């Protein structure tokens, strides 16, 4: 158990809908990352937050957004869902943000999103 | 061409064999190199972390980085059935705010 929690474990929804994925980082970790894992693209970095502020953006679509709250939990919002958004979504946390020496990222168990 | 290339496998070897897993990359700015292990239906967990070129050993695992060839390897000695998993290489530059860049992962099967 990494100490990172994600809810829900599974989510099934229809095209065009909007969903929210939730992540609670390990105790003491200030940085949260979101990743998308699909069979064809592999594990791709979406976005990073550090202590409530957006720190870096990766391959995140404009239909997707995220935020980190004062209690440090984070939410990833996916809207106007398409079939191709079906994937595993992982949250990871670390003590400090990337930049300089590596700070280990601890991954949560993921949320499996199925868009029908 | 993707930034990080990794053979997806599956790679099937008998128990006790030495396993070699590899990744190549194109971005010369990468300085930090990691190997993650991912069991089915679980999140990735860090196995090894190496900075710049060189070797690093931890128990049965050895990570090698050759920056001149843009090639990294993970060796597993005395492989066990419990090593069966997907192994993902990951890297980042360290120069700014960015996330990890992952290979697609190699599915490894250790036959008892």
Describe the structure.
- The complex is a heterodimer of chains A (116) and B (112).
- By secondary structure, chain A is mostly beta strands.
- Chain A contains no helices and eleven strands.
- Chain A has strands at 5-7, 10-13, 19-24, 31-38, 42-50, 53-57, 64-68, 74-78, 87-94, 106-107, 111-115.
- In chain A, the strands form two sheets. In chain A, strands 2, 4, 5, 6, 9, 10 and 11 form a seven-stranded mixed sheet that branches.
- In chain A, strand 7 (64-68) and strand 8 (74-78) form a beta hairpin.
- The termini of chain A are far apart.
- The model of chain A has no long low-confidence stretch (mean pLDDT 93).
- Chain B is mainly beta and 112 residues long.
- Chain B is built from no helices and eleven strands.
- The interface between A and B is medium-sized, with 30 and 26 residues.
How do you describe this structure in short?
The complex is a heterodimer of chains A (116) and B (112). In chain A, 0% of the residues lie in helices and 52% in strands. With 116 residues, chain A is an all-beta fold.
Q: Can you tag this structure with a few keywords?
A:
heterodimer; A: 116 residues; mainly beta; seven-stranded mixed sheet; four-stranded antiparallel sheet; 0% helix; globular; B: 112 residues; six-stranded mixed sheet; five-stranded antiparallel sheet; 54% strand
Question: What topology does this entry show?
Answer:
The complex is a heterodimer of chains A (116) and B (112).
Chain A: E1 5-7, E2 10-13, E3 19-24, E4 31-38, E5 42-50, E6 53-57, E7 64-68, E8 74-78, E9 87-94, E10 106-107, E11 111-115
Parallel strand pairs in A: 2-11
Antiparallel strand pairs in A: 1-3, 3-8, 4-5, 4-9, 5-6, 7-8, 9-10, 9-11
Chain B: E1 4-5, E2 11-14, E3 19-25, E4 32-38, E5 45-51, E6 54-58, E7 61-66, E8 71-76, E9 85-92, E10 101-102, E11 106-111
Parallel strand pairs in B: 2-11
Antiparallel strand pairs in B: 1-3, 3-8, 4-5, 4-9, 6-7, 7-8, 9-10, 9-11
């Amino acid at each position: 158990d990494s100490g990172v929690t994600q809810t829900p474990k599974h989510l099934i929804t229809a095209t065009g809908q909007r969903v929210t994925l939730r992540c609670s980082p390990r105790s003491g970790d200030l940085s949260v990352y979101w990743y998308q894992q699909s069979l064809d693209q592999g594990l791709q970095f979406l976005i990073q937050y550090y202590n409530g502020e957006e720190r870096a953006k990766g391959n995140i679509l404009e239909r997707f957004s995220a935020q980190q709250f004062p209690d440090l939990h984070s939410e990833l919002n996916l809207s106007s869902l398409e079939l191709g958004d079906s994937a595993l979504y992982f949250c990871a946390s670390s003590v400090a943000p990337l930049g300089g020496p590596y700070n280990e990222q601890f991954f949560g168990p993921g949320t499996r999103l199925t868009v029908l | 061409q993707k930034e990080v290339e990794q053979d997806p496998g599956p790679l099937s070897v008998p128990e006790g064999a030495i396993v070699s897993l590899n990744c190549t990359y194109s971005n010369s700015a990468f300085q930090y190199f990691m190997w993650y292990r991912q069991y089915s239906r679980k999140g990735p967990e860090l196995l090894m972390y190496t900075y710049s070129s060189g070797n690093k050993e931890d128990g049965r695992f050895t990570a090698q980085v050759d920056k001149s060839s843009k090639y990294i390897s993970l060796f597993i000695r005395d492989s066990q059935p419990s090593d069966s998993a997907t192994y993902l290489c990951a890297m980042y530059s360290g120069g700014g705010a960015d996330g990890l860049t992952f290979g697609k992962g190699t599915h490894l099967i250790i036959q008892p």
